[in-house]
Each structure stands twice: as C-alpha cells, then as structure tokens.
C-alpha cells in the first residue's frame, strides 16, 4: 500500500493584522493609550500610521510590534527598535511559501485635520482586475489637510463594487466618480447601480453610490456589508452647520433586496453628518459603522454620538440647488474636543435605503462646494 496524500500547502498570505507599541514610557507621547494599537488592519492597507502629540518629543527609537499571518516573516523584526523621526520605515512581510511579499510603510505623525471646505476636484485613478478576469478603473477622492498635505479623508464603496465587475468597467460605470460640470469645476457624483448576477445571488442586488469621511474595508463586503463603512475622521472643533450644493435625479423603478418593484415609491437621496466620541467606555478607539447609522432617527441614542445633522428633504432637481443642515444634540466638553477625542462623519448617498440594498437603479446624486462651519 502507498500513500499519495500531499503535505498541506504552505500559507501564501503575507499581511500585517495588528500593530502596537508597548511600554509605559511611550504613553506620554499619545493623546490616548488606545491610540498605541492598530487592530483589524484591512488587507488592502499598506500604510500604518500612529498619531502622536508632537513629533518634536518623539523618542528616536521606538519598538513597534506586529501580528502577521501564520507562517509569514517580517523584516525588520517585530519589536525591534527603529527611528521614525525622519519619516516612515518600510517593513516587508514574506509569506510562508516564500513566493509572496508585501511592503508596509509604518509612520508616526501629528494629527492631520481636513480643511473645512470640499470641492471634489482631486482624484486618484485606481486600476486592477477581479476574480472574473475583468479589468476596472475607478476614482478615489482625496483632499488636503490643514497643513497642505495630501490625505485620503474620503472613502466610497467603489472597492467593493470592483469585486462584482463583469467585463471592462471604467470610472463612470462605478457607483462613485468625479463628474464634469460641477457648481464650480468638477463635482462628486454618486449613482445607484446593479451588482449583476453575483449581487443578486447573495441578496445584494444594488450598490448605492456613496461618499463619506472615513475608510472602506473591502474585506467585509461578503461577510458583513454594513461593517465595510468606517465613518469619521478626527476633528478638533465642534461643528454647527454644513452647507453645499446638490442635484438629484431618482431612478425610474424602486426595488427591494428581492428585486421586487415597489409601485408608487420614489427613491430618495441622503445627506447627513455625525459628530461622535471615538473612545468607548473602556477607553478603546472605536468607529461608527453602517449598522450604527441605519436609523438616523435613533442615532442620538447611540452612547458615543453627541450631535447629528441631516438634510430633511432633497427634492429631485437637475439644477444646482443649495442645501443646509444644522447639528442638533448635546455640547461636547471643550477639553475632549481639543484632544481630538471626536470624529466627524459626513455622508452622501444616492439611495436613502442603499445600506439595506433598496433603491432605484439609475438614481444620481451630485454634490459640490461642501463647507463645514464651527462654533469657534
């Protein structure tokens, strides 16, 4: 008798899953000790950034530790002393089978905050392919912080939609893209699209165009879609009002997630914002996700939410029309705001019920010249 059972294949993954700094001597460099750790790092991320009070007082040698995929190796070694005062350090993760490598840029920086006005002029063109052999190109909006440095403050669901593409798809065939003929220059456009046969098979027949301050985790698209959207970026002032301009053209037929047409129902767009504390009761850094904002009427019941603003009505119009929304809720303590303990999320969507996979294919929301006003 002979055996032909092969040895188990070695792991081909080479990801950093978590990164952290240990040691009480480093705590004074952070606003919160929770910021000394980064967990659940997206597989699509290649930059890991720790936010510190001041780069001037940052020690010249800091040990950053990592949890990586099973069997993989990392160079420089996890926990080794490195000098981050001159810029990012490149770490290379090699898979167990030694066939794959990924490089990460690990850096320390002082808090970077967005400007208070957004014109949606700046994009990066992301290209790639998916498991169906389809190629794609989509737009990723970026902006500049208060120091004039380029930052990816804005996110959308485009990376998730790329998984469902069948055939070559250009940027204008994605849910979110930069459009011509804005109120001034270019603008952001969000459109509700069909996700094709794959989307229908898993009960997610549409993808509403969305754009929000925060991050998108494509790893959760098929596992838990409402966890793909991580809303909010750090802010050091308390918002009062948000203004801007919009155009909205709803699609013809409103459908639910079973692809059933709902007669006499018209799709609606959604524009809202949330100001919330990013530390939970245990002092751990957290975020709002899609399931946290499913019901805007109940959002103020969330223990971390301080203020909410929303546009009550966005009537269909093909003309640029001003919108305005005011924040309502409780005032945030000034000392906590100054320490950047709060996040601000601004969210735009072409279908109000898009997170529940309900809406009208063809709905289009255009936004431009969005401005945030503050008390101080």
What tags apply to this protein structure?
Jelly Rolls, six-stranded antiparallel β-sheet, 3 helices, globular, eight-stranded antiparallel β-sheet, Immunoglobulin-like, 2 domains, mainly beta
Total beta strand runs: 30
CATH homologous superfamily title of the largest domain: BT2081, beta-jelly-roll domain
Average pLDDT number: 88
Question: DSSP helix count?
Answer: 3
Uncertain stretches of 5 or more adjacent residues: none
Helical residue percent band: under 10%
Number of structural domains? 2
Strand content: 35-45%
Q: In whole angstroms, how far apart are the ends?
A: 82 Å
Question: In the CATH hierarchy, what is the architecture of the largest domain at level 2?
Answer: Sandwich
CATH fold type of the largest domain: Jelly Rolls
Name of the top-level CATH class of the largest domain: Mainly Beta
Structural class: mainly beta
Structure description:
Strands 14, 19, 20, 21, 24, 25, 27 and 28 form an 8-stranded antiparallel beta sheet that branches. Strands 9, 15, 16, 22, 26 and 30 form a 6-stranded antiparallel beta sheet that branches. Strands 2-1-4-6 form a 4-stranded antiparallel beta sheet, with no helix packed on it. With 376 residues, it is mainly beta. The radius of gyration is 22 Å and the shape is globular. It is built from 3 helices and 30 strands. A hairpin with a 6-residue loop joins strand 7 (89-94) and strand 8.
Q: Which helices and strands, and how do they pair?
A:
Layout: E1 16-21, E2 37-38, E3 47-51, E4 62-68, E5 73-75, E6 81-82, E7 89-94, E8 101-109, E9 117-118, E10 123-129, E11 135-141, E12 143-144, E13 150-151, E14 154-155, H1 158-161, E15 176-179, E16 187-191, E17 193-194, H2 196-201, E18 206-207, E19 210-216, E20 229-231, E21 233-235, E22 239-249, E23 254-255, E24 270-277, E25 305-310, E26 317-326, E27 328-329, H3 334-338, E28 342-349, E29 359-360, E30 364-374
């Amino acid at each position: 008798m002979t055996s032909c059972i092969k040895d188990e294949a070695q792991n081909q993954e080479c990801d950093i899953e978590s990164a952290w700094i240990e040691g009480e001597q480093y705590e004074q460099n952070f606003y919160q000790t929770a910021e000394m750790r980064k967990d659940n790092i997206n597989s699509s991320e290649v930059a890991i950034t720790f936010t510190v009070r001041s780069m001037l007082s940052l020690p010249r040698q800091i040990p950053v530790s990592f949890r990586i995929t099973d069997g993989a190796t990392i160079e420089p070694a996890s926990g080794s002393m490195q000098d981050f005062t001159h810029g990012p350090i490149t770490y290379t993760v090699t898979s167990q089978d030694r066939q794959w490598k990924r490089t990460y840029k690990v850096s320390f920086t002082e808090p970077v905050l967005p400007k208070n006005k957004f014109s949606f002029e700046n994009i990066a063109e992301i290209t790639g392919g998916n498991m169906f052999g389809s190629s794609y190109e989509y737009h990723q909006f970026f902006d500049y912080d208060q120091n004039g440095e380029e930052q990816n403050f804005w996110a959308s669901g485009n990376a998730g939609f790329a998984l469902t593409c069948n055939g070559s798809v250009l940027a204008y065939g994605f849910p979110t893209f930069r459009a011509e003929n804005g109120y001034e220059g270019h603008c952001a456009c969000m459109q509700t699209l069909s996700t094709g046969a794959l989307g229908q098979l898993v009960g997610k027949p549409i993808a509403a165009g969305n754009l929000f301050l925060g991050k998108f985790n494509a790893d959760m698209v098929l596992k838990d879609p409402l966890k793909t959207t991580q809303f909010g970026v750090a802010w050091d002032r308390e918002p009062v009002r948000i203004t801007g301009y919009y155009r909205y053209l709803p699609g013809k037929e409103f459908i639910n997630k079973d692809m059933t047409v709902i007669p006499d129902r018209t799709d609606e767009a959604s524009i809202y914002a949330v100001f919330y504390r990013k530390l939970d009761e245990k002092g751990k850094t957290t975020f709002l996700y899609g399931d946290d904002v499913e019901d805007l009427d109940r959002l103020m019941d969330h223990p971390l939410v301080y203020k909410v603003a929303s546009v009550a009505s966005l009537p269909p119009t093909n003309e640029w029309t001003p919108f305005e929304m005011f924040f309502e809720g409780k005032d945030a303590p000034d000392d906590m705001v100054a320490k950047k303990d709060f996040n601000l999320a601004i969210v735009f969507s072409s279908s109000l019920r898009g997170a529940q996979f309900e809406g009208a294919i063809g709905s289009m929301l255009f936004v431009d010249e969005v401005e945030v006003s503050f008390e101080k």
